[in-house]
Amino acid sequence: MRYSELTNRIAGESVDTWRVHYRAMARLDAGEQIFLLSVGQESDSLSPPGVMRAGIHSIESGRHHYTAVEGDRRLREIIAQRHAGQCSIPVDPDCVVVFCGAQNALFATAQILLQAGDEVILVEPYYTTYPATVTASGATLVSVVLKPEEEFQLNAERVIEAITPQTRAILINTPNNPTGAIYTRKSLQALVDVCGERDIWLISDEVYMDIVNQSSLCRPCSLPGADKAVICISSVSKTYRMTGWRVGWAIGCKELAQHYYNLNMCMSYGLSGIAQDAAAHALVHENKVATEITRRLAAQRRLVIDKLSGIPDTQIYGGGGGMFVIMDIRRLGVDAMSFAAGLLDEEGVSVQPLLGFGNSCKGLLRISAVLNEDRLLEACRRIARYTASL
Question: Both 301 and 249 in a single domain?
Fold first, then answer.
């Protein structure tokens, strides 16, 4: 039987990179002691009790029927008000559309903005789902590499140099997954300016923005000229320990929101009211949780950097923010996938090889600093011991 060309565009390294993680999950489910540092969630923590109670109340009150295709009005108003406060700009709830997570919002955005013949610029390292997300539309991916020696900071000049007449969009993620880099106001403003001047969309994936020190953060939508070009995408997943609830959103202009509505009509036909009620509760009542997560992750990230720095023939990066630390093992003479597989087999620690995060990343590992201090210390000891054995 025949399949479409789409099946080729959504396969490859972006999928293969998860092989070690899935092996680790299978062993964890079988009852083994596995230190899971290969996924971007606090897997040792639960959603806030208030969120769970809101979900239960929603079920008991009968919220298990169809909902508005664009998302419940109440939730969109809450998101709009919150976004307006964060960016010091007015936000119309009619410019907010709710999706089944930020990943779904990104995919919908690519389908609406991009088509065959278009180019979309990604800064590399990028999150592993980005290539398939943008090229599923038929568009061509153009990669701009960020350098480890520059702490993976956004170099706006290199991005602007990559723009051609076919460039339709630039996709950025700050704080970045996998590097944790927080992009500067100067670099972001340069991209906002050029996007406005050349009619290019700037897609801003902001799922980690609420779990870093806000004083070091610049939100692209708050910059002059952002209203012309910036689309903001976020979710409750990382901020409130709600990865499994699958609630995200996109914020743009009203015309874009109408296109989102039309796509949602034939794609998801609205999101579960139960999940939306839980998300609304989180956004209104659980901001202390976000503050707690920010403090916890900062301390755990520092711990990983401290314990793994100085290992011969390796380099550690992670001074930005968020959940992640990068370990550069290129001088060890072993590829990242083999290292991760051996580490899991020998020490029971699962880390993420950056196969699929960009061609420049194949000797890099992402370590998620998401376990409690005692387990994280033990995992770091095991990583150091395995590295020494090589």
Answer: no
Report the candidate in 178, 177, 183 with the shortest Cα–Cα distance to residue 216: 183
Tokens of 114: 């991009």
DSSP codes joined into one string, 30-82: TT---EEESSSS-TT----HHHHHHHHHHHHTT--S---TT--HHHHHHHHHH
The total of structural domains in the chain comes to: 2
Q: At what angle do helices 49-60 and 273-285 cross, to 10 degrees?
A: 140
If asked whether residues 227 and 347 sit together in one domain, one would say no
258: pLDDT strictly greater than 90: yes
Distance, CA of 131 to CA of 120 (rounded, Å): 10
Per-residue pLDDT, 275: 98
SS3 content of the chain, % helix, strand, coil (to 5): 50, 15, 35
Q: How many helices (H) and strands (E) does the chain have?
A: 14, 12
Q: Are 193 and 258 in the same domain?
A: yes
Q: How confident is the model at residue 15 (pLDDT cuts 50, 70, 90)?
A: confident
Number of Cβ within a 10 Å radius of residue 321 = 23
Q: Domain ends where: 260, 285, 310?
A: 285
Mean pLDDT (whole number) for 329-335: 93
Give yes or no: residues 73 and 202 share one domain.
yes
What pTM, to 2 d.p., does this model score?
Answer: 0.95
Instruction: Name the token pair of 348.
Output: 């029971």
Domain end residue (candidates: 224, 252, 285): 285
Q: Give the residue from 285, 296, 248 showing the smallest Cα distance to 97.
A: 248
What are the pLDDT digits (tens) for 120-164? 999 999 999 999 999 999 999 999 999 988 999 999 999 999 999
- Residue 9, pLDDT > 90, answer no
Give the structural domain span for 276. 49-285
